[in-house]
Amino acid sequence: MIELRKETNAQYKLKVGRSKTGLGLYALEPIPKGKKIIEYVGKIMTDESDDDKNSLYIFNINKKVDIDGAPRFNIARYINHSCRPNAESDTYKDHVWIKSKRNIMLGEEITYDYGKEYWNEYIKPKGCRCEKCTEKKLKPLSTKEKRQ
């Protein structure tokens, strides 16, 4: 069975814009903690219809069903990974919602943790560029280091 779900069901005003890692999804209004932000949509794939599981936008729902969110109408695909995310995924049947973990401010990039499997295969080899990880790399020099 292949179904193409196009309606993103965005619950808030959002925009795609430039981020540190390419493109990202940004809040155009404040989003309270615990609220549905947007549905992750695309081609629903089952084991039988498993044409292309090589897409970077595959969202695994369960052992039998995945969503290929590669089509550009799925603006949730622009949500970047973060090791300190402000959102999380919530699956119900064959739907995936991105929900806020905390209050999200106007203009803030929406992020969630892509999970261990994606991290190990795609992020770890190149290095994580999320805000938390780049903060570690940009620590200010101590007084002792400055004198040297």
From TrEMBL:
**Which Gene3D superfamilies does the entry link to?**
SET domain (2.170.270.10)
Task: Show the InterPro entries listed in the entry.
Answer: H3K9_HMTase_SUVAR3-9 (IPR051357), SET_dom (IPR001214), SET_dom_sf (IPR046341)
Please report a single Pfam family linked to this protein.
SET
**Cross-referenced SMART domains, in alphabetical order?**
SET (SM00317)
| Lineage of source species | Bacteria, Candidatus Lloydiibacteriota
- Domain of life per record: Bacteria
The SET domain extends over: 12-115
Q: Name one GO molecular function term.
A: histone methyltransferase activity
- Protein name, as recorded: SET domain-containing protein
Show the SUPFAM superfamilies listed in the entry.
Answer: SET domain (SSF82199)
